[in-house]
Each structure stands twice: as C-alpha cells, then as structure tokens.
C-alpha cells in the first residue's frame, strides 16, 4: 500500500518538474546572403564608329614593263636587276641606222610635197585671175583647183610621216617614265625586239600598296576610296594615310576572307617593299547606338551575358551583340537606355546576387579609339 502511494506521488510530481524545466529555443533563422561590392555603369546611347584592323605586307602599287615602240635591234642595255631607276634615265638604246634612213626619206618627201603644193598654188592663183577674162576654160580652172587640193593633201601626209619617223628615232632611246627599282632584265645587246616584247620590269616606288585580308563580318564596312591609317613596326611612331583602291568581290575559298588593297600615296621614302604593316579602317559614324564595354560580358555556359541591376539584385541578360572593337561592342537587343550593368567583380556574381555599389559610371560616347 505504501508502494502504491509513493508511485502516485511520483506521477503527481512529473507535471511540476516539467513546468520548472527551461523552454526549448525556436529554430534559428537562416543568415541572408552577403551583398557583393561592385562598380556599375548606366547604358546610354551615343555615336558609334566601327573600326577594325588587318595586317599585310608593303608592296609597290605599280609595276612598269620595259618595252619598245618600234621593231629594231638592241644596241646597248644600260640597266641591271636591283638598280635604282630615276624617271628620265636611259634604259637601253636601239640600232637607229634604219630609223635615220627612214627619217631622211620622210624629210625628202616633205620637201618634194611642199614644192608641188607651192607650184600648184601659184598655177591656180594665176588661172584664177585670167579665168574671168575667158582666156582659159572652166575645165582648166577646175583642174588647177583640184591639183592644188591634191598637193595640199600630199603635203599633209608627208609631214605626218616625217613626224612619225622623228618620234621613232627618238624612241631609239628607251627612257624610264617612273622612279623605281629594276626587278627584271630580259634583254641583251644584239637582240631583235618588237613592241610586243617585255624587256624588263621596274617596280614603281613613288606609291606603295598594302595588301590585307578582311573578314566577312567587316567587309561591308569597306569601300573603294575610303581612308585608312597605315603603320609599320619598321617605322615606329609614324602613321601614314592610305586609301582603299581595290575590294575583292568574292572571298578566298580557303579562308573566307576578302582581299583589300590600300595605296599609300606619300610614304616619304620610309616605308619599303616587303615591310609588314597594320591597316586600321574606320567606317561611317552611327548615332543613337547602345554599346557596352567588353569587360561587362561574362561567359556562362558558352553564352555571353551581362548582369543588369534591379533593386540592388542582379539579373542575367543575354543581349544581341554586333561587331565591336577591342574595347566596346554594340547591342542590338536585350538592353535599353538607362539600364545599369555590373562591370566589376563579375567572378563573384550570379543571377539573383545582392550587390552594393562602389560607384556608378555613365558613358555616353560608345566609340572610344581602338
């Protein structure tokens, strides 16, 4: 009976002991993610100047083929391969014996034709004065007039032949019309030559050319006549003005690139054949173009995205991009004027990341120099 009573007391004490125990604390709340400090910028429309570069080699803009104007025998050759040539230098002489005979004959023909013309003129003048008196017939008068016209035509032909013979004799000395360097000599003394023969080649050095290849994404920005800037490591610190003189209509099958020729009109003797060169092209400025710096782009799963800021939280956006330069790239869709982008600490940023700003940049000129 005492045992039952002690058990009963224990049961009564349990609620009392429970009431005196420490209350169980509520589960702890999760800690909010820490905001990342970043720099941001506002996207604003501005002017866009599409520029791009290509590389090539300096070559002569023109080559002059040495040839003759008349068929003759070469008497002397006065140039050699590698020789610097000045305009007016005699390159070769031809045997002019036959040409001098031809000129002498042409001179004699002119003298004879002039004498005939003067005689016909004197006769016609006399007939003209006595025709009115009836001493000569109308037929004789008209015959003298015809002879005068015929002798005049003969004199004209003889003088033309004399001029041609004079020019041919002058052409017996072949002179260079250009400044340059003789790169080929295909003639020796004693050879018979004709106007169809190429006797040598002179590379013209007054104007130089740079041959470059432009990718298909840039080729529509290039046109004949546009200005381009040329630099070469062989002439450090110098920038030369060039102009596009040729744009290929089709790409090379092997590379998909288009050949473009740029002429440098005045290199001041500094650029030389065979030097490497860089050509910078600049297209026409476009207005109200949104562009973003390349350092705002990140590669996430082979997609180029930017992080836009909304209410201090990032949002991943994949914009539609155009062809940019080394620092900036135009945006065609996905962003609008006034959008705020993260431009620093992008390795710490993901979609939905809280941020705090260290500063906000605004860039209105979206076409900085490349």
Record the SSE blueprint.
Elements: H1 2-20, E1 36-43, E2 46-48, E3 51-66, E4 72-77, E5 84-85, E6 90-94, H2 97-131, H3 138-170, E7 173-175, E8 180-185, E9 192-193, E10 200-214, E11 227-231, E12 240-247, E13 258-264, E14 276-282, E15 286-289, E16 291-293, E17 298-299, E18 304-310, E19 313-317, E20 320-321, E21 328-333, E22 340-342, E23 355-363
Parallel strand pairs: 1-23
Antiparallel strand pairs: 1-22, 2-15, 3-10, 3-14, 4-6, 4-9, 5-8, 6-7, 8-10, 10-13, 11-12, 11-14, 12-13, 16-21, 17-18, 18-19, 20-21
Helix pairs in contact: 2-3
Count of domains: 4
The averaged pLDDT comes out at 83
DSSP helical segment count: 3
> Total number of β-strand segments?
23
Largest sheet: 6 strands, antiparallel, barrel
Question: What oligomeric state is this?
Answer: single chain
Using the coordinates shown, work out and report the CATH topology of the largest domain: conserved putative lor/sdh protein from methanococcus maripaludis s2 fold
| Proportion of helical residues | 10-25%
Provide the gyration radius in Å: 46 Å
Question: Can you write the helix and strand succession as a string?
Answer: HEEEEEEHHEEEEEEEEEEEEEEEEE
Give the termini separation: 104 Å
Q: What's the level 1 CATH class of the largest domain?
A: Mainly Beta
Overall SS class: alpha+beta
What amount of the residues lies in strands? 35-45%
Principal-axes shape call: elongated
Strand arrangement within the widest β-sheet reads 3-10-13-12-11-14
CATH architecture of the largest domain: Beta Barrel
Q: Uncertain runs with pLDDT below 50, 5 residues or more?
A: 1-21, 364-370
């Amino acid at each position: 009976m005492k045992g039952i009573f002690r058990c009963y007391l224990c049961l009564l004490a349990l609620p009392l002991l429970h009431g005196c125990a420490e209350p169980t604390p509520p589960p702890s709340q999760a800690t909010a993610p820490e905001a990342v400090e970043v720099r941001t910028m506002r996207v604003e429309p501005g002017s866009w100047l599409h520029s791009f570069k290509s590389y090539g080699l300096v070559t002569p803009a023109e080559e002059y083929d040495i040839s003759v104007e008349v068929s003759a025998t070469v008497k002397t050759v006065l140039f050699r391969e590698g020789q610097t040539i000045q305009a007016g230098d005699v390159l070769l002489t031809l045997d002019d014996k036959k040409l001098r005979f031809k000129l002498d004959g042409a001179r004699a023909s002119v003298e004879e034709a002039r004498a005939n013309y003067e005689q016909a003129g004197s006769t016609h003048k006399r007939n003209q004065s006595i025709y009115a008196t009836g001493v000569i017939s109308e037929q004789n008068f008209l015959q003298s007039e015809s002879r005068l016209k015929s002798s005049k035509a003969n004199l004209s032909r003889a003088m033309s032949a004399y001029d041609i013979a004079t020019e041919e004799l002058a052409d017996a000395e072949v002179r260079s019309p250009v400044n340059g360097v003789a790169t080929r000599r295909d003639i020796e003394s004693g050879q018979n030559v004709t106007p169809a023969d190429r006797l040598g080649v002179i590379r013209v050095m007054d104007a130089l050319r740079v041959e470059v290849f432009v990718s298909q994404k840039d080729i529509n920005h290039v046109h004949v006549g546009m200005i381009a800037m040329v630099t070469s490591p062989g002439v450090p610190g110098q920038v030369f003005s060039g102009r596009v003189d040729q744009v290929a209509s089709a790409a090379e099958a092997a590379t998909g690139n288009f050949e473009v020729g740029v002429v440098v009109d005045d290199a001041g003797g500094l650029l030389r054949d065979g030097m490497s060169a860089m050509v910078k092209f600049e297209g026409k400025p476009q207005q109200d173009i949104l562009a973003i710096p390349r350092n705002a782009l990140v590669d996430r799963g082979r997609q180029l995205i930017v992080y836009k800021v909304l209410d201090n939280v990032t949002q991943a956006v994949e914009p539609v991009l155009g062809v940019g330069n080394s620092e900036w790239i135009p945006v065609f869709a996905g962003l609008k004027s006034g959008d705020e982008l993260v431009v620093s600490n992008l390795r710490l940023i993901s979609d939905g990341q809280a941020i705090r700003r260290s500063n906000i940049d605004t860039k209105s000129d979206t076409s900085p120099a490349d």
